[in-house]
């Protein structure tokens, strides 16, 4: 991944502390609405609109529904200079436009290494072979006839926030955090398929291979395969989208997105990892002493404030809510703390139910913005007791040479003008 380095912003703590202390001050009546009833000469309420008087449009004889035309800004976006081509690229999810924890299918982030394969499901097969009692080939019909399960899981690319190791880079929530999404995946638990074909005793690793032009391969330890891995054919109630691996993908909950092989065509059981490109030259983490961490599978606890954020500025003093998303590859989110003064004072946010393991969790906290500078930070804790680190803490262990697995806390600076900037606390 090429990185265009932009100016790194460091913010002194002293300046904003004066204004931050005002936040603790007396709470006047909350002002959510800009206008009041007394000022309601507002034509939007006094005048008849077309839609009050004329029939709306009729049902579509047949077709697939689309969002309101007024929501056309709610889209995935890419960064053209980031990747060499559209076929080997990333499309980021607009996290600040979403509610709840489910990512609508048309807004799920995309990461492809060889374009989006267009697969005719009638011609698609899944082969299970290697250290098994009976090698088998399954059609899509075979797979759909088997018992299935549905689970909400997040998928996060290990490279999410990967540009931020040396300082604040892109002034955007979408581009710094948008490689995470959540869907309800429906499919056959891999453990049932393994029992069906009879995994041999010495089988310890499984190679998964995609049918796309990148022929992506990763090896997965058999303990994980027997735990919660799904062979998924549906996403949020409909067939998996082409972008997400239609007609069949692996879902490896809580692990780096790269392991969830899309357009899945082959699973081979063996007694050792395959050491594929994606687990040697890529998806390893270079340390300061020249050694690299490898098989760093789990996406550890992380959180981001999605509102306010650079794309969602603040409009003057008054009552707001600070909201965002948290997730952990180790299980459930236990708690999310939010600070408006760069981490000096923290308050626990309310978590939206249901809070599910290895799934995004929405957090929310009221915020009475009194103007001036504010430094918004969130910090997630998961059910194992793990606490999301600061960048200083993360760099003490990892250095700055990594791309992958940056789960450090993020700071958004709210300026007196209401603009929100991606900053690194100095
Ligand atoms: N076959 C195949 N599987 C793949 C990829 C790919 O390019 N080809 N990209 C991987 C990467 S790096 C990630 S982060 C996830 C992204 O899944 P999504 O596009 O559904 O969000 O798919 C993974 N599975
Ligand atoms: Mo990825």
Short note summarizing the structure:
The chain has 426 residues and is α+β, with helices and mostly antiparallel strands.
Q: Structural class per helix/strand content?
A: alpha+beta
The description of the largest β-sheet is: 6 strands, mixed
Q: Report helical residue fraction.
A: 10-25%
SS strand fraction: 25-35%
List cofactors, ions and other ligands.
ligand MTE, molybdenum atom
User: Uncertain runs with pLDDT below 50, 5 residues or more?
Assistant: 1-27
**In CATH, what is the homologous superfamily of the largest domain?**
Oxidoreductase, molybdopterin-binding domain
Shape: globular
Mean pLDDT: 92
The CATH C-level class name of the largest domain: Alpha Beta
CATH fold annotation of the largest domain: Sulfite Oxidase, Chain A, domain 2
Number of helices: 8
Strand order, largest beta sheet: 1-24-23-22-18-19
Could you describe the 3D structure shown?
The chain has 426 residues and is of the alpha+beta class. It has three domains: 13-51, no CATH class; 105-292, Sulfite Oxidase, Chain A, domain 2 (Alpha-Beta Complex); 302-423, Immunoglobulin-like (Sandwich), CATH 2.60.40. Helices cover 12% and strands 29% of the residues. The chain contains eight helices and 24 strands. The chain has helices spanning 13-22, 43-46, 50-53, 140-145, 173-177, 190-197, 222-227, 391-398; strands spanning 10-11, 89-91, 110-112, 125-130, 136-139, 149-156, 180-189, 205-210, 217-221, 230-235, 238-239, 249-251, 264-270, 285-286, 292-293, 302-307, 318-327, 333-339, 347-348, 350-351, 361-369, 374-382, 411-414, 420-425. The strands form six sheets. The protein has a six-stranded mixed β-sheet with strand order 1-24-23-22-18-19, covered by helices on one side. A five-stranded mixed β-sheet has the order 5-4-13-8-9. A hairpin with a 2-residue loop joins strand 10 and strand 11 (238-239). The longest helix has 10 residues, at 13-22. It starts with 9 loop residues before the first strand and ends with a strand. The ligand Nc1nc2c(c(=O)[nH]1)N[C@H]1C(S)=C(S)[C@@H](COP(=O)(O)O)O[C@H]1N2 binds at residues 108-113, 155, 157, 181, 210, 212, 214, 216, 243-244, 257-258, 260-263. Molybdenum atom binds next to loops.
């Amino acid at each position: 991944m090429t990185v265009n380095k932009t100016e790194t912003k460091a913010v002194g703590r002293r300046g904003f502390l004066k204004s931050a202390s005002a936040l603790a001050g007396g709470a006047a009546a909350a002002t959510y609405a800009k206008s009041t009833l007394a000022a309601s000469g507002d034509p939007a309420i006094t005048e008849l609109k077309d839609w009050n008087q004329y029939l709306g449009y009729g049902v579509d004889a047949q077709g697939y529904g689309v969002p309101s035309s007024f929501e056309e800004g709610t889209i995935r976006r890419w960064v053209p200079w980031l990747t060499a081509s559209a076929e080997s690229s990333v499309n980021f999810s607009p996290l600040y436009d979403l509610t709840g924890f489910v990512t609508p299918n048309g807004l799920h982030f995309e990461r492809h290494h060889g374009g989006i394969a267009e697969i005719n499901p009638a011609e698609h097969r899944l082969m299970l072979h290697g250290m098994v009692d009976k090698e088998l080939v399954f059609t899509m019909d075979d797979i759909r006839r088997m018992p299935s399960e549905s689970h909400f899981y997040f998928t996060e690319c290990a490279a999410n926030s990967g540009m931020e190791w040396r300082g604040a880079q892109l002034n955007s929530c979408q581009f710094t955090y948008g490689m995470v999404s959540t869907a309800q995946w429906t499919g056959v638990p891999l453990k049932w398929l393994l029992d069906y074909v009879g995994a041999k005793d010495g089988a310890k690793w499984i190679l998964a291979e995609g049918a796309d032009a990148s022929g992506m391969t990763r090896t997965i330890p058999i303990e994980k395969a027997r735990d919660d891995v799904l062979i998924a054919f549906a996403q949020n109630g409909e067939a998996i989208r082409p972008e997400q691996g239609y007609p069949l993908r692996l879902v490896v909950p809580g692990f780096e997105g790269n392991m969830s092989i899309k357009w899945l065509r082959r699973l081979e059981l063996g007694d050792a990892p395959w050491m594929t490109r994606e687990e040697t030259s890529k998806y390893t983490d270079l340390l300061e002493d020249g050694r690299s961490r490898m098989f760093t599978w789990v996406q550890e606890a992380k959180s981001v404030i999605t509102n306010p954020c650079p794309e969602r500025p603040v409009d003057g003093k008054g009552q707001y809510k600070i909201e965002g998303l948290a997730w952990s590859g180790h299980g459930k989110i236990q708690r999310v703390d939010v600070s408006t003064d760069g981490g000096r004072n923290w308050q626990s946010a309310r978590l939206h139910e249901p809070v599910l393991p290895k799934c995004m969790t929405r957090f929310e906290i009221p915020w009475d913005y009194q103007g001036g500078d504010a430094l918004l930070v969130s910090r997630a804790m998961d059910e194992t007791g793990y606490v999301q680190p600061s960048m200083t803490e993360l760099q003490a262990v990892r250095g700055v040479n990594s791309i992958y697995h940056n789960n450090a806390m993020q700071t958004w600076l709210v300026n007196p003008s209401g603009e929100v900037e991606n900053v690194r606390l100095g």
